[in-house]
Amino acid sequence: MFNLQYDVVEYSKLKKLNPDESFFTIISYLEIEKRGKRLTEQRYKGEIELKEYTMIGCVGGEDWQWEALQAIIQRR
Fold first, then answer.
1. Its domain of life (predicted)?
2. Burial of 25 (0-12, 13-18, 19+ CB in 10 A)
């Protein structure tokens, strides 16, 4: 569930831009964004190979989440 390590300000901004989206959907988006940043950092530090980075980056949430997450990205 919600963890204090998430940026509350970022959550608030996204909620204002996406008032109809659920708490869970916005948190899922923030988790995916955070994971993407972490994978990118690992890739540039040479901690993971390009093939592994690509495969890990493709693994995401359930299909029903993607439509809502795409809407958040577009409003951002």
1. Bacteria
2. buried
Contact 53, 42 (CB under 8 A): yes
Rounded CA-CA distance 29/66 in Å is 9
Residue 35 and residue 20 in contact, taking contact as beta carbons nearer than 8 Å: no
What are the tokens at 68? 């809502």
The pTM assigned to this predicted structure is: 0.60
Tens digit of each residue's pLDDT (9 = 90 or more) over 17-56 = 989 988 988 888 888 888 888 878 887 888 776 665 555 5
Domain-wise residue ranges, the chain: 8-15+22-57
